[in-house]
Write a structure and sequence with these properties.
The protein is mainly alpha-helical. The chain has one domain. Helix content is about 75%, strand content about 0%. The chain contains 3 helices and no strands. The protein has helices at about 10-50, 55-70, 80-100. Helix 1 runs parallel beside helix 3 and helix 2 (about 55-70) packs antiparallel against helix 3 (about 80-100). The longest helix is centred in the N-terminal third of the chain and has 40 residues, at about 10-50. The protein is elongated, with a radius of gyration of 22 Å. The mean pLDDT is about 85.
Length: about 100
């Protein structure tokens, strides 16, 4: 007796892999949108100026410049550790400008 295609594990695995691929694309787009909007927020804060403590702000800006100049990832490889480093840096930048 011939098995139906519905119960074929290869067909089911292929279907689930296609679904996983779609989920990965959505997650990637959402993550990228979040990171870009947070970078834009930091940029607006840096460009706006002001703040309660000019000295603290200047020290923060020096730290930001140092970290950004030293930040290097191999984007073409798409390694998850590079993405984590990027995410950490952006989170840290946001926390700094939130102090202003």
């Amino acid at each position: 007796m011939k098995r139906s295609r519905k119960n074929n594990p290869a067909v089911e695995a292929a279907k689930e892999l296609k679904h996983l691929r779609a989920i990965a694309r959505v997650a990637h787009r959402c993550s990228l949108a979040r990171i870009e909007s947070e970078i834009a927020r930091v940029l607006r804060c840096v460009a706006k100026g002001g703040g309660d403590s000019p000295r603290l702000r200047r020290d923060h800006l020096r730290w930001i410049v140092k970290k950004l100049k030293g930040f290097d990832i191999r984007a073409e490889k798409g390694r998850s550790k590079d993405l984590r480093r990027l995410d950490w840096l952006v989170i840290r930048l946001v926390s700094i400008v939130d102090e202003w």
